[in-house]
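Example 3.2
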Amino acid sequence: MPGKPTYEELEQRIKVLEADTSKAARPADQANLLTIAIGQSSIGFAVTDLDGNLQVLNNAFAEMHGYLPEELVGKNLSIFHNEKQIPSVEEANRQLKENGIFSGEIWHVRRDGTVFPTLMNNSLVKDENNKPVGMTGTIYDITEQKKIEEKLIRTQTLFKSVMDQSPIPMALAKIDGTLEVLNDACLEILGVENESEAKPGINLLQIEPTWKNYDTDGNFVPIENLPLARALQGESTKGVEYRIVRQDGTERWELVDGVPVYDKDGNIIAGFIVFPDITRLKLVEQALKESEKKYRTIFENIQSIYAEVALDSTLLEVSPSIEKILGYKRDDVIGSSISNFYAFPEKREEFIKLIQKDGKVTDYEVVLKHKNGNHVTGSLTAYLVIEDTSEPLKVISSFQDISKRKRAEEKLRQSEDQFREFAKILPGLVYEIDDKGKLNFLNNLAFELTGYTEEDIQKGMSGLDILVPEDRDRARENIKKILNGADILKNEYTVLRKDGKTFPVIEQAVPVKKHGRVIGQRGVVLDERERKRMQEELRCSEEKFSKAFYSSPVPFAITSLDGRMINVNDSFCKAIEFPREQLIGHTVLELDLWVDPIQRAKMIKAIQDNEGNIELEAKIRTKSGRIRTMIISGQLQDIDGRKCLLTTANDMTDRIAAQQEVLKLNIELEQRVEKRTAQLLEANKEIEAFAFSVSHDLRSPARYIKDFAEFIKKDLASGVNERTFENLDSIIKTSRKMTDLIDGLLKFSRAGRAKIKRKRVDMNLLVKSAVNETEHYTANRNIKWHIAELPETEGDLMLLSQVFFNLISNAVKYTEKEKTAVIETSFLPGDNNSTIYYVKDNGVGFKMKYASKLFNVFQRLHNENEFEGTGIGLALTKRIIERHDGKIWAESEPGKGATFFFELPGKV
């Protein structure tokens, strides 16, 4: 079934049909045939009067618009157009009136409101006097044609996007070798900065490159033998490696693919090449070779014995270190049975069972025979090598001589025996338990204090058995901590004697290690009965002072000279956030109260030297970790015959903080006054500059208006002439300039007084809006926009919109002399969570020594005859940015464009 006609075929058919319908009168039979053909045609046909009212139309015309033919007769063509199409329709009517014909694309509106593209050919119908009496036209729905064109454009865009974003160099060349398409990765290789420089003039088959190509054998490869030339001859190449040597001596490797591109008739029309840089891969290959060399060096110099053994125990490979450890030469033992080296054959059988079960063996202790007959004890680690078929292939093993370690372990055992002998006579309770909690050792004093005997230990007594039941869970958790790596633990327990009596103790425990692994716990236990007795005495002493002591709002503490807490009142407990029971009996060092313990030591010495009252300011750490500033007062007191220290601690933190806050507020107030003064000085400078600028820039237009008005007055006296109208035009132009200046000044003034309405602002919408606003005077210009996705900020939407409009419109204005203008908007991260936005162009630029004038009112770096403007836009932009606590600056070079940066702070 034939397909739809192409766009070109359709256009030709329409022209033929139009030519036929515009001829003079025909014979009747031909006219009838023509009428039938038009009625049955899929091309729309219509005849209207000069006002566009439909007189005659065929079914195709009505159907494509969603009507019946009888519904459209008498209707005006305007029902097929909306406001958007009016300009193109008016242009078509103009061509029709001037030339008598129109041919082109026009969008039409269907009955249901949808729009579709059409190809139209219209002609004027004239009577015998050559006077226009109507219009005739043909129309064809080209929606499908447009879809094909759009799909082609999308495909081309996608292809170009993939190439541009790829880090791999790609290029498409025509059949003659001329570059058609290339990506950025190619630009560096070709020595150009952008595609526009490379595409029109470079022929890859004719250029003299700045590099030379060599194959993997080191042979030079001329251009005509490279993959692109071969692809243009119809040959596909894949994965061909080339070494590229530049003129400066640097090298790189490329892996090149080249394929020919055919048209629908099978003719080669282009060649496509891809040539990724594989220099790093080649370096990796070289590193691998070096690694293999290093492996061989390590293998030959390894201190352990590395061996590969077949499943039948045949020694396949062994490291030269076997001679040093066992006395055998490597070449003498390869091929022999590994069983010959075992001092105890049953260990070999046990090893085979283990590796068959688990596939590996770790730290397996064996004894091998030295060539001289001695035994060498070692640690064996091995694993099975499995094939893809899951069948064992061989065993790889490493034997490390541990004879020295075994001798060290023997010495350690002897040392342990000596420790036990020494611990038996120590004046403290010494014990040792294994990792299961079983008692291994108690010294003589421990037997005496607990009532247990060596026989009890031999029966498998647990270390928890000598503690009261309520302490055992806690002790069990502390043992776990030691086994999990804790170095030292200090605990309080109650011991349960064999006869049922109890007494308090303090235990200090450490781990017992072997080969770096914790195998148990060892500890020293001190009888706490004497300390408890002292605590009881202190409790009785407290009662004597309790009324005055506990009721005082002043924090009081009684301590021994070594810092041990004897008594404290409620105020003291509240001040340092400790309950009394956690203070009594403990030293200030244990409780870590003093931030600077040396300070307390100096206070104690001063009190002892003077025997008087000492007062100082100190930092005290509470239980929660807060640091409080306190006035500590200490005085020696004789309590129950002992020298003690009576101290008070008055918390001054809040008072000091209040004083510091007042000081801070004073400083902030001074800073605000200085800032406001600076702002007022700046405002005065602006007012002076403003007044000068107004008097200068507004006086000039006013003087021009006065002078031109006097000229007109003189002209009117002698009669209106051409110069009169020129003077009137000058007055209008000067008035418009004065109006622009006044409007700009009003905006500048409002920007300094307007209240900032802060909210989240989408900067992308502001850029898009600014670009749209410039469209009316950029319609006929070639501008490349590079607009990046910008982050949001916080600020006044309307004021920030003015910033982007001013900067983008300036970029448009100062690039108007460029053949191709390039305008870019993007951003950079700033300091302290700020964002730096910028607008960059390739326009006329300026000298940086004049940059300080850019942001002043009425300051211009270019003559008004070159570029129009009031000189207020950048001053207004600077004021808006500063109102947002930001800053603005510019960088430029004459003839190389300018970049305007403005920085806005992060979220406030």
